[in-house]
Design brief:
This protein is of the alpha+beta class and about 375 residues long. The chain is about 30% helix and about 30% strand. The strands form three sheets. A nine-stranded antiparallel sheet has the order 6-5-9-10-11-1-4-8-7. Strands 13-12-14-15-16 form a five-stranded parallel sheet, with helices on both faces.
Amino acid sequence: MKRLPLLLLIPLLLLFACEHGTQPEAHGEMPVRINLEPALAHGLNVTQVSVTITKGGFSHQMDLPIVGSMAEGTFTDLEMGTYAIDVAVYNDTLLIATGSGTGIVKPGETTTVHITLHFVPGGLEVTINWGLPYEESRRVLLVGNSHTYFNGGVDAHLQALVNAAHPEWRVVVDARTGGGYTLENHCNDPNTLTAIATGDWDLVVLQEQSSRPQTDPSLFYQYAAQLNTAINQAGALTGFYMTWAWRNNPEMYEPIRDAYYYIGAYLDALVLPAGVAFHNAHQDTLSFSLYASDNYHPSIYGTYLVACTMLAGIWNINPVGNSYRPPEISPAHALLLQTIAWDTVQGETHKAGQRCPLPPLAKPLEVLPSQIIPRDELAA
C-alpha cells in the first residue's frame, strides 16, 4: 500500500519586542497548519493532530483544532531560537503518522518550514537558520571515548589551535574519556559526573559512541538529556561532537548527522559537525586517509580535522592559516583540512536536515495503514 504524505507548513510570524526594564525581549508566534485532504482522500479519519515544540527546558504541546480538512493552531509568546518540533497524527487511538524536525523563531524574519509526514516511522527534511553564542567559552571539557582521545586527543590539538589564534584568551581544554564509552556509561560513571560538576566549565561537549546514534538513537537522546541536566546544573553550556560514518559503511552518515542535529535542537545545544566535515572531505579524492587502519577511528588527519571544526564551531574562528599543525601533517594538507572545517561549519550553521524518529519511539517501526499500532502500546 502506498505511504501517505501529509504536508505541514509552519510559517513563523514574528511580533514586535515588548519592553522589560531596559532591554527589549523579542518574542514570536509559530502558526501551524496541516492540510488533511490527502488523508481524507485515502479514506482515513484524522481525529487528532498533536504538535509539540521544545527548546531547552521549555516544552509545549498542542492538539490542533480540526475544522473540515484543515488542522491549525498557533504557539504564541515564543522566545527567539531553534525549536525541536514533534508531530503525531491519530485516528482515534491509532497513530497514523509521525514527524520530527526543527524550526527557528528569529526577530525580523519570517520562515516557512515544510515537513512531510509519513506513516510510522516518519521522515522529513527541513532547512533552517540557527546558531548559538558559545564564543565566550574559556574552559571546555570534551566527554567521549577513543574518537576523542586518539592521536594525542582532540582536546590537545584544539588547545594548540586556539592558543595559536588567541593566546591572550587563556583557554583551557580538557577531556574525560573511556574506551568504548557511550553517554550511558558516562551517565553511570561517578568520575565523569564529578568532572562535570567540579570543573567550572563554560562548555561541555558530548560525544556518543560512534554507531549508537544510528542503531539506537533513543538511548543516545535519553542519556544526552541526562548529561545535559548535569551540565546545566554545573552552570555550563552543552555541545555535541558529531562523529562520522565508518569508511566501509557510508550509509551511517545521514542517520548519525540527523540524530545529532535533532538532539542539539531539542536541548538547545551546540552541534559541532565533524561528521559532516569528514563527509565533505570526500575521502576517496584525498592522498591521505582521515581514518586509522581500522577504518572507523580517526587518523591524525581526522583528529586534526575534528579540532579545526571545533575551533570554528565553538569560537567562530577561521582555522585557515592557523600556525599550529601536527608534525605528521604537511603545510599543504593542514591548509586543506582547515579549509574543509571552516567551509563545513559555515555551511552547517545555515542548514540542518532532519530525518530521525521521535525520541519516545525506541526503534523505527515499519507500519502500513492496515498495521497501525495503538498509541498506548507505543508508550509501553
